[in-house]
Amino acid sequence: xxxxxxxxxxxWLQSQEVKAGTVYDVGGAQEQMPRRVKSWExxxxxIFDLPHPHKGRKPDxxxxxxxxxPVLDGYKGMADIVYCLEVFEYIYDPVRAMKNLAGLVKPTxxxxxxxxxxxxxxxxxxxDYLRYTLAGTTKIAQV
Length: 143
Known about the structure:
Strand order of the largest sheet: 3-2-1-4-5
Structural class: alpha/beta
Order of helices and strands: HEEEEHEH
Radius of gyration: 16 Å
Number of strands: 5
Helix content: 10-25%
């Protein structure tokens, strides 16, 4: 059975009509976007994922978005849309990952990213930033 988060995400995706020149799907080896949306009219579609994703098809561009990668240079500012769905729970360097995503999209483009551990803010709301799992905390402590 899917989580309420996954059900909500799938419902939203199934309502989306995607029409774009270039779409990058970061972390999309397991669940490719064309199968998840209502309609798909895209000129170029590339999947960016780990060199050996745990499941799914081989990525078009093998990269770990946690890290600076010269591989991304050839794709900078080229995408109309960048999807990064159900990935951030595996990210240990969210600042680097967001910079990498921002580098891929055109100035007029859009990034769609999901954060499944989104949690309501608490006081003081201006300083409530992140939630950490045990694995995330351990990873940060090792750096």
